[in-house]
Amino acid sequence: MYSFVEESRELESIATKCKGLISRLASRIPTETKGLKILAGQQLFVTPDERTKLFLLKEGSLSYKRNGRIIVVFDEGDLIGFEQHFCPPLGEIHSDFAVIVDVYSCETFFAAVMNDSELFKLWNQFLAYQYAYFAGIAASLMKRGVAPTPEVRDYSAGDIIIRQGDSAREVFTLVEGCLEVVVDDVVVGEIKQDEIFGMLAALTDTKRTATIRCKTDAMVLVLPKDNFVELIETRPATVLRMVEDMARAIIDLNEKVVEMSYIKG
Asked: What distances in angstroms separate CA 58 from CA 11, 36, 112, 134, one per listed residue?
């Protein structure tokens, strides 16, 4: 997987990690068809039947296009088709040249993932890195400018910064201290120094999904969500830090979910 924008070493490393995770997953899940040849000049995942399949690229490359522009090129070791399976795709995947793929049934693939805690963890790690990669590409395309100035707020141990179910109007960065992530009165994780939090609900205009409570005294930087969008546009490095924090949070939460499921079992 690579793009035509200038890639940092971090993005190259993320692409390599994606392939490594998929290789580990694919080795544990049976294929539907091995070595299928896809001819040049095809648009993939157009029919309903195609959207029930996943393709693991074995030879050649496929281009991911949006509005006629190539955003990224998938190559050997990349898994494609899960976006098209779960939601209306934002782009199109084309075979500019003939390629060879291994085919997986979405039903078989995701059943295996959901029924095995190790595969479940690998899959969520892959999603986190995949998100980080595309966010990094978006950051590379954004223009730099003057960043907005955040507000500084001080909190005491036990204070609530974000309350589950509230509207999301601000995004936060923890400067000092330690915070707890609480869902339905259960502590599911921690937020540590320099982590960005509260951005998902703010960017998607949804309700807060967790309560953030001060475990210690804390200092926090606060930006209104509109200013945070502006910050992303003017400081691409913020995007990478944000997705790194999200990747860690996703992995930590899923480990917690798996742990709790074993306890209940």
From this structure: 22, 9, 21, 22
